Fold this protein.
Amino acid sequence: MKTTKSRFRTFAVLAALCLLMVPVVPKLKVIWDLSERRESLQKESERLHAVQLDLKAQLKEARSPAAIEKIAREKLHMVKKGETYIVEIEPSDDSF
């Protein structure tokens, strides 16, 4: 008779533990998902920080007098006083 009571108590304790785990398991999944999301956001933040540093370096270089002069000459076709601007004309196919 004692074994039946003992088995019943064991079963009751296990059933109670299972019932207590029901609300905990979904919360553990949420915690796991948030942890993975945090890691991915941390990696993205590090990547964006590296991009930001690169862009700051490019901006610093672009603001230098040499870079400004290069852009003025190559893209805006500007010249200094006393210089002559030469335009290359490519022959077209219909001129011959």
The mean pLDDT is 88. The chain has three helices and no strands.
